[in-house]
Specification:
Layout lengths: L1 H16 L1 H4 L3 H22 L6 H12 L18 H14 L3 H31 L8 H11 L2 H6 L6 H16 L3 H14 L2 H18 L6 H24 L10 H18 L1 H16 L6 H27 L13 H16 L11 H7 L2 H19 L4 H24 L5 E4 L2 H8 L4 E4 L39 H6 L4 E3 L21 E8 L5 E7 L3 H9 L4 E3 L4
Parallel strand pairs: 1-2, 1-3
Antiparallel strand pairs: 3-5, 4-5, 4-6
Helix pairs in contact: 1-3, 1-18, 3-6, 3-7, 4-5, 4-20, 5-6, 5-10, 6-7, 6-9, 6-15, 6-16, 7-16, 7-18, 9-10, 9-15, 10-11, 10-12, 11-12, 11-15, 13-15, 14-16, 15-16, 19-20
Length: 564
């Protein structure tokens, strides 16, 4: 924590003290951007949490690299992931060099976050320069936008998480840059890549397409622009979709009712708004500037002003989509991580265009005077500081991520224990199939209690209620199949040899309760980890219980303690 605070203080000091030079001297901008990247890296390392859900993709990636194909369980063609591009990228280090999937994913995520910080700088300066006929403008605004992006807690939390979040943010900002540079084909290709990274990317692709259509309808661009954009997107989306539908027997699906989605989504958005009040205030100021400072402009300046609206529209559309989808049980508002960077870019660019752009000739250009004022760097430094406060104090941020890290590590230990001791081909059921399934290895068939990564994927069931760290709460208060209504019957039908009765790792005391769906065919087997007060309960198939207990106690890591 001290390193992160120190990096912020250094960045804030340079940003404020050297602001006039940042607007005039490239060397100062380069040095300050280096400090900004260092702050972003320190902010990410403060979290240092690999998401449990990332291990689902890791298992797919390892199976591809090891020759099993893009499957969770060898022989079962089920699309239990929704981040195809990310899957391909994290597979490459192991497939080409035999490297670690986990390490490669963490490094790539951190680099994508740093890339998003850099792109914020270039995007803002591109917009402002276009409005000022390619002039130097207030180049320091790009540094301010980069600092704001580096301070986004959600982005920092999921940079080293192993998930695709930071790649998605990078791609969305790249789409905006391609539009600003009037490269519709490139924008279409990048939008398609965003859609192949996460389903949210389809929202981005549609919004950008509609923006281009609206611009063409008003005569501000040629009709070729939306057509070229669509062509660039379809050249990737069509073959990818065709492959998905032909390769997988069970493409990704599932969901909950609209009423449940909207209720959960509203709570999700309300919590996000509370945590990101400073960014929302910046957005309100940006919108006010765009609406109130309308001057007679040449086409280039008018177009630059219109481009500033695009990240704002994308932020609104993403928020509406996430709200309708019901949010996400993971901590740190993962699904909205792209929103604050978009708002930061829009706010900085709106200031440069609305305030800094000259309206009438003057011997003392307004932009030059504004370049010496320190309002922008002070605000940017203050917002970054507030983001650190949110990071450390908000229960859904750093505390929840570290709780999640602990639980994920314990699930990895349980998966490794089962993988080393159970016979090859054994079917194991788990609430959270990621970390446990990855460490168990491809020799075990993992059935997800949520139906996520096996043949029950298309079933409809109620989304689990989430605890503080994003885990479903079971009937006994520490996780349970009761948290996955509608799936326990399916799990029993697969007749797993063992069902792991936890989704949050170990418990502090012995638990001997059993889900009624397993009664009769299964018995509870409670294990204590050697030399600890950590417990895990398994449902063991009654006809194989004696043999399973012998196997699981063989290495002495866990000791079976019969329930009273």
């Amino acid at each position: 924590m001290a390193v992160t605070i120190g990096a912020w203080l250094a960045l804030a000091a340079v940003l404020v003290a050297a602001w006039p030079r940042l607007n005039a001297e490239p060397g100062w901008r380069a040095a300050t951007m280096a400090l900004t990247l260092a702050f972003s890296l320190a902010h990410q390392l403060l979290y240092s949490t690999i998401a449990e859900d990332a291990f689902v993709t890791f298992r797919y990636a390892r199976n591809i690299a090891d020759g099993y194909g893009p499957v969770f369980n060898p022989g079962e063609r089920v699309e239990g992931y929704s981040n195809f591009l990310w899957l391909v990228l994290i597979t490459l280090p192991r497939a080409m060099f035999g490297g670690s999937v986990v390490t490669g994913a963490v490094v790539l995520g951190v680099l994508c976050t740093l890339g998003a910080v850099l792109l914020s700088y270039f995007l803002v300066n591109r917009m402002v320069a276009d409005a000022q006929h390619g002039g130097a403008g207030m180049r320091g605004l790009g540094v301010a936008a980069a600092a704001l992006t580096a301070g986004v807690s959600s982005l920092a939390a999921y940079g080293p998480s192993g998930l695709e979040t930071s790649l998605f943010v990078l791609l969305v900002l790249t789409v905006c840059y391609a539009v600003a540079a009037q490269r519709p084909v490139v924008a279409g290709v990048i939008a398609a890549l965003a859609a192949m990274t996460t389903p949210d990317g389809l929202v981005v692709a549609v919004v950008v397409g509609l923006w281009l259509v609206a611009r063409a309808a008003r005569g501000h661009t040629t009709a070729w622009a939306p057509s070229a954009y669509a062509l660039g997107a379809l050249v990737l989306l069509v073959p990818w979709t065709a492959w998905r539908l032909t390769f997988y027997d069970h493409p990704a699906g599932g969901g909950i009712s609209p009423t449940e989605r909207l209720g959960a989504g509203w709570d999700y958005l309300a919590g996000f708004a509370l945590g990101y009040q400073a960014f929302l205030l910046l957005t309100a100021a940006a919108v006010a500037l765009l609406l109130t400072r309308r001057r007679a402009q040449d086409p280039a300046a008018a177009r630059a002003r219109a481009v500033v609206w695009l990240p704002l529209l994308l932020a609104v559309a993403q928020s509406m989509f996430v709200g309708y989808a019901g949010g996400d049980p993971m901590p740190a508002w993962r699904l909205l991580a792209v929103v604050p960077p978009l708002l930061a870019v829009a706010a900085a660019a709106a200031y440069g265009i609305g305030i800094g752009a000259p309206s009438v000739p003057s011997p003392k250009p307004r932009a030059a005077a504004l370049a010496r004022r320190r309002t922008v760097p002070v605000v940017a430094a203050a917002v970054c500081g507030l983001s650190l406060v949110v990071t450390t104090a908000h229960p859904r941020m750093l505390p929840a991520m570290h709780e999640w890290r602990t639980a994920t590590g314990q699930l990895e230990q349980i998966g490794g224990w089962l993988g080393e001791n159970l016979p090859q081909g054994s079917v194991v059921s788990a609430y959270k199939p990621g970390a446990l399934g990855y460490r168990a290895g491809p020799a075990l068939v993992i059935v997800a209690a949520s139906g996520r990564a096996d043949e029950h994927l298309g079933a409809r069931a109620q989304q689990p209620s989430a605890g503080a760290a994003g885990y479903p709460a079971g009937g006994d208060g520490y996780g349970g199949y009761g948290g996955y209504e509608g799936y326990d019957g399916y799990v029993v039908s697969r007749m797993p040899l063992v069902a792991v009765d936890t989704d949050t790792g170990y418990t502090a005391e012995q638990h001997c309760g059993m889900d009624p769906a397993f009664a009769g065919l299964y018995e509870v087997a409670s294990f204590q980890r050697a030399d600890t007060e950590q417990w895990v309960s398994l449902y063991v198939r009654r006809d194989a219980k004696r043999r399973v207990l012998e196997l699981l106690e063989a290495d002495g890591t866990y000791r079976h303690v019969p329930c009273a």
